[in-house]
């Protein structure tokens, strides 16, 4: 009787916690990071609109000019507009960094899911591979791989993927080991749902947030790696603009035109800062309840 | 009537949240006399744990006492500084917690933990403190204390850890022990052992207890008087026997009827419809009125004060005779 | 004689404790955690069996073996005569469903109620695609929740409401046997009543057979037709509810009943419940498992001879004690043996 009466009384839906959507603007690190990054991404996307010259068009009669109304940040040793190279460089570097994170993220997540859920020999092999990769210092491995594969963007992707999947696999595996014991997973199992369904519908959404947070700080590392490779001449190949390359090219003129190296350097710092803040903010927001 | 050892009057504790203030405790008043055991009963969200912790100032971050007074052994702890409160902690007032594994230091031997208070706070010599610790371990029923004192908390069972915690609480010879659901996480047989231990200690050492629990039966067995809390307020106080026989607040009545009693097998358990209110915006007037079977118009009018309904009895209800009449009609408790 | 729906036949569930390789190399015995160590149990169609015991007795493991979340190390789980292992056909899984203890982890936080329910309905093709929505509403109505709950996430519900959703989920596959593993222990007292009443009502309405696993004796007394008491992986006593509560024959059951706090104030029971701590399921005592804590244990029989379940005059009341049905030996205070940790 009482239960029927309660059925009539509608369930009180109590608003417990604000979702992500309502909290993001209250998290200063997220807002700061998103703003900085937003500006840079916006500039990169609007590159053709905010530059007067192409990034690769040379003007050998006007090399090493200081800032002027025609060239806002001056020109480099080949007469190329520095501002334009900076903006297009952002395009290149951000795109490469983003894709370079995506591949290890995806592969590492899947491997982590499988090894955490099934254990056994899948897990053993994964751990073995992880230990091998982790034994090498990050930069050494990347540089060696790119060198071996030949410089260029595709080598960057391959190298970073080979080295980078490891962190994601470890994070996801750790989370899965805990999550697979949760009652809702047991309920799904006893409800006869397939392993695939459990892995991708029940486990993945609940473990992926840690990987996403890591990806944000990982992208900083990757951008720096790409810049470094560019500086060493192993990364993005000319004439495609790239901050690393710009820094390397400007090195010769450090005493006379220091801005040629410094400006892209500052750009790297600001981008990395923006990404770090974003990662911090996301970590706060995506923290499990 | 001697002065109460603990006097809580109109206690109010607020949390500063992102979305506004949450008043976790809004009007808690009760007394505890020397050597007496008072039970504080309530469900989750009732404010009972916060109220208990305010007594020694162990509030979580963001919480503040914003009203009322707490007097311990004559000292107004709400007005006193942190130093004064620290003086009282461990000596006059001590506390035992629900989860011994988190309340004990995992990297310190239990014997040392029990001896810590006498050694550090009371300035005893190492040998005297150690002897005290062994004596306390014997008192709380830990077999083979000499050997056990060398163990670390993780080497002991749940019941043993709880006994160690009680020994630590006793090490400063307190007059009052605050118990925050100390048996909730224990098995029934171990709970029984611990409750009997607390009763024995209370008698032998004449120490007062404030026992917070959600389990009415545990309170019935351990305490002589009780205070019932709902939505941050004390809604009823009195002697356990009298309150059980004749509850004067509809919530108390509902609670008693919803507990599956060991001895009285009822056809159907009565439940209280609805849910506890959101403390950030409690209902107008009486906080229980949306769920009350006896609600009338004046219940919504204004905040209900804690009314004295008999000697040592109080209830926060304008129509407290209704609940009492209902209980007389259909007794709640066997042998009542 | 009501037909047996579920039969547990000499069920054992053992786990290897870590570090066994090292132990074997040192010539020591491998350590095994005997969670369930020889259980014979029958549940008749339509009845509610209460399974009680304290932590470490193996009752939860037993429930999981029945529902197919872990494999028996020995013995069998038989349902309707057919043996069921952990890996079972989907159609077999439907028959036995479970309600879990913790309402805060038994629902996927990232799925709405509707998604949780419809996922099961679709996987088992319980209703045609067009009827999924209606069936979800029916299930929620069955547990006393309105249709507004469909699009809500678990975090928006209270503990009691979540448990109702969990019950609705368990019922989505229309099981015959429902295992409730401590369904109300994590809930507030007044809410427990609601959920218990609901389970009672559903039992009648849907003709469910139920296994209620609980540590709260009062709850069990209220809900169960028969009660089985577990201790260290074995059933030590089994009887119809009233018989068990008024005429318990095993010393552990007796101690357990003495230890339950009563709602009657002032009744300070001086009688000791059970002394000592429960031993670990890894290092089992010799002979009768309860003898180190038993107030009537007699040398040498109790420390050498492991008693099996035996009936007294009534066939439906069994107890595993040498002195269950004979003259009771004098009581003594058991010497609490030091447990190797």
Characterization of the model:
The complex is a heterotrimer of chains A (289), B (336) and C (341). Chain A has 289 residues and is mainly alpha-helical. Chain A has a single domain, classed as Orthogonal Bundle (MetI-like fold), CATH 1.10.3720.10. Chain A contains 12 helices and no strands. Chain B is built from 13 helices and 12 strands. In chain B, strand 9 and strand 10 (233-239) form a beta hairpin. Chain C is of the alpha/beta class. Chain C folds into 2 domains: 4-231, Rossmann fold (3-Layer(aba) Sandwich); 232-262 and 275-341, no CATH class. Chain C has helices spanning 20-25, 59-67, 90-95, 113-123, 132-142, 159-172, 189-206, 217-223, 241-246, 251-259, 301-304; strands spanning 4-16, 32-44, 48-52, 74-79, 82-84, 96-99, 177-181, 209-214, 226-231, 234-240, 310-311, 318-319. In chain C, helix 4 (113-123) runs parallel beside helix 6 (159-172) and helix 6 (159-172) runs parallel beside helix 7 (189-206). The chains are: A mainly alpha (289), B alpha/beta (336), C alpha/beta (341). Chains in contact: A-B, A-C, B-C. At the B-C interface, helix 7, helix 8, helix 9, helix 10 and helix 11 of B face helix 7, helix 8 and helix 10 of C.
Which class of secondary structure composition applies to the elements of chain C? alpha/beta
The best one-word shape of chain B is globular
Number of strands of chain B: 12
Put simply, the count of helices of chain C is 11
In order across it, which strands form the biggest sheet of chain B? 6-7-8-3-9-10-12-11
List the strand order in the largest sheet of chain C. Answer: 6-7-8-3-9-10-12-11
Largest sheet of chain B: 8 strands, mixed
Task: Describe the secondary-structure layout.
The complex is a heterotrimer of chains A (289), B (336) and C (341).
Chain A: H1 2-8, H2 20-23, H3 28-45, H4 47-50, H5 82-118, H6 120-134, H7 138-149, H8 153-179, H9 183-190, H10 195-231, H11 243-251, H12 259-285
Chain B: E1 6-17, E2 20-32, E3 37-41, H1 48-56, E4 63-72, E5 75-76, H2 82-88, E6 93-96, H3 100-103, H4 110-121, H5 126-139, H6 145-148, H7 158-170, E7 176-180, H8 188-205, E8 208-213, H9 216-222, E9 225-230, E10 233-239, H10 240-245, H11 250-258, H12 298-301, E11 307-310, E12 313-315, H13 320-329
Chain C: E1 4-16, H1 20-25, E2 32-44, E3 48-52, H2 59-67, E4 74-79, E5 82-84, H3 90-95, E6 96-99, H4 113-123, H5 132-142, H6 159-172, E7 177-181, H7 189-206, E8 209-214, H8 217-223, E9 226-231, E10 234-240, H9 241-246, H10 251-259, H11 301-304, E11 310-311, E12 318-319
Parallel strand pairs in C: 3-8, 3-9, 6-7, 7-8
Antiparallel strand pairs in C: 1-2, 1-4, 4-5, 9-10, 10-12, 11-12
Helix pairs in contact in C: 4-6, 5-6, 6-7
């Amino acid at each position: 009787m009482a239960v029927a009466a309660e059925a009539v009384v509608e369930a009180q839906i109590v608003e417990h916690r604000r979702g992500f959507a309502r909290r993001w603007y209250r998290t200063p690190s997220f807002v700061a990071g998103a703003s900085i990054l937003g500006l840079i991404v916006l500039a990169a996307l609007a590159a053709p609109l905010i530059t007067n010259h192409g990034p690769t068009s040379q003007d050998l009669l006007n090399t090493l000019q200081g800032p002027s109304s025609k060239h806002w940040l001056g020109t480099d040793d080949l007469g190329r507009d520095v501002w334009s190279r900076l903006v297009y460089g952002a395009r290149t570097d951000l795109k490469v960094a983003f894709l370079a994170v995506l591949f290890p993220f995806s592969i590492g997540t899947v491997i982590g899911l499988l090894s955490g859920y099934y254990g056994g020999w899948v897990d053993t092999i994964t751990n073995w591979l992880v230990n091998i990769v982790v034994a090498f210092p990050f930069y050494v491995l990347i540089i060696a791989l790119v060198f071996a594969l030949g410089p260029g963007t595709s080598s960057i992707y391959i190298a970073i993927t080979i080295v980078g999947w490891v962190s994601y696999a470890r994070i996801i595996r750790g989370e899965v080991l805990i999550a697979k014991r949760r009652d809702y997973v047991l309920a799904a199992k006893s409800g006869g749902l397939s392993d695939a369904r459990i892995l991708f519908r029940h486990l993945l959404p609940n473990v992926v947030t840690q990987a996403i947070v890591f990806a944000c700080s990982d992208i900083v590392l990757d951008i720096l790696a790409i810049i470094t490779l560019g500086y060493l001449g192993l990364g993005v190949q000319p004439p495609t603009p790239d901050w690393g390359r710009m820094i390397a090219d400007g090195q010769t003129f450090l005493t006379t035109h220091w801005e040629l190296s410094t400006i892209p350097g500052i750009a790297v710092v600001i981008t990395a800062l923006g990404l770090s803040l974003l990662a911090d903010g996301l970590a706060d927001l995506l923290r499990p309840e | 009537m001697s002065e109460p050892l603990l006097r809580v009057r109109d206690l109010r504790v607020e949390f500063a949240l992102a979305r506004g203030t949450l008043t976790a405790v809004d009007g808690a008043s009760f007394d505890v006399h020397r050597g007496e055991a008072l039970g504080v009963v309530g469900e989750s969200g009732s404010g009972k744990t916060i109220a208990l912790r305010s007594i020694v100032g162990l509030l979580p971050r963001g919480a503040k006492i914003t009203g009322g007074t707490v007097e311990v052994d004559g000292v107004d702890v709400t007005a006193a500084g942190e130093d004064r409160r620290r003086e009282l902690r461990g000596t006059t007032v001590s506390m035992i917690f629900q989860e011994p594994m988190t309340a004990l230091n995992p990297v310190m031997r239990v014997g040392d933990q029990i001896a810590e208070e006498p050694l550090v706070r009371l300035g005893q010599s190492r040998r005297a403190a150690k002897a005290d610790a062994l004596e306390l371990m014997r008192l709380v029923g830990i077999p083979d204390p000499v050997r056990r004192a060398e163990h670390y908390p993780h080497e002991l069972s749940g019941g043993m850890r709880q006994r160690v915690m009680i020994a630590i609480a006793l090490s400063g010879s307190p007059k009052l022990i605050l118990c925050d659901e100390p048996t909730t996480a224990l098995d029934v047989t171990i709970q029984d052992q611990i409750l009997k231990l607390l009763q024995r200690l209370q008698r032998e050492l004449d120490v007062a207890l404030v026992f917070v629990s959600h389990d009415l039966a545990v309170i019935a067995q351990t305490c002589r008087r009780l205070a019932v809390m709902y939505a941050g307020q004390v809604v009823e106080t009195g002697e356990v026997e009298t309150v059980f026989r004749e509850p004067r607040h509809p919530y108390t009545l509902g609670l008693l009827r919803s507990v599956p009693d060991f001895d009285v097998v009822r056809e159907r358990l009565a439940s209280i419809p609805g849910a506890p209110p959101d403390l950030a915006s409690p209902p107008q007037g009486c906080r229980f009125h949306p769920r009350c079977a006896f609600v009338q118009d004046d219940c919504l009018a204004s905040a209900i004060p804690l009314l004295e309904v008999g000697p040592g009895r109080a209830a926060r209800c304008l129509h407290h005779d209704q609940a009492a009449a209902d209980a007389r009609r259909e007794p709640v408790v066997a042998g009542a | 004689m009501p037909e047996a729906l579920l039969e547990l036949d000499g069920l054992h569930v053992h786990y290897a404790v870590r570090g066994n390789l090292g132990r074997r190399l040192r010539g020591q015995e491998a350590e095994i955690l005997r969670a369930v160590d020889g259980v014979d149990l029958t549940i008749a169609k339509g009845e509610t069996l209460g399974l009680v015991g304290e932590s470490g007795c193996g009752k939860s493991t037993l429930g999981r073996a029945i529902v197919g979340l872990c494999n028996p190390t020995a013995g069998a789980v038989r349902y309707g005569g057919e043996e069921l292992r952990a890996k079972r056909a989907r159609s077999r899984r439907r028959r036995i469903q479970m309600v879990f203890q913790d309402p805060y982890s038994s629902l996927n936080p990232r799925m709405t109620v509707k998604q949780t329910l419809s996922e099961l309905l679709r996987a088992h093709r319980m209703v045609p695609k067009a009827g999924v929505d209606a069936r979800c509403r029916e299930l929620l109505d069955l547990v006393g929740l309105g249709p507004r709950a469909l699009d809500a996430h678990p975090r928006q519900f209270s503990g009691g409401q979540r448990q109702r959703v969990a019950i609705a989920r368990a019922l989505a596959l229309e099981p015959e046997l429902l295992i409730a593993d401590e369904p109300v222990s994590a809930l507030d007292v007044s809410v427990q009543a609601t959920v218990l009443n609901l389970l009672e009502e559903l039992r009648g309405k849907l003709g469910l057979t139920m296994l209620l696993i609980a540590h709260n004796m009062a709850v069990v007394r209220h809900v169960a037709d028969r009660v089985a008491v577990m201790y260290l992986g074995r059933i030590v006593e089994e009887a119809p509810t009233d018989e068990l509560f008024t005429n318990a024959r095993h010393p552990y059951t007796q101690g357990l009943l003495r230890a339950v706090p009563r709602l009657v104030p002032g009744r300070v029971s001086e009688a000791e419940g059970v002394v000592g701590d429960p031993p670990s399921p890894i290092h089992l005592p010799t002979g009768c498992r309860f003898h180190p804590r038993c107030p009537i244990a007699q040398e040498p029989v109790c420390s050498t001879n492991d008693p099996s379940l035996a009936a007294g005059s009534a066939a439906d009341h069994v107890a595993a004690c040498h002195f269950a049905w004979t003259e009771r030996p004098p009581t003594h205070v058991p010497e609490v043996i030091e447990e190797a940790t």
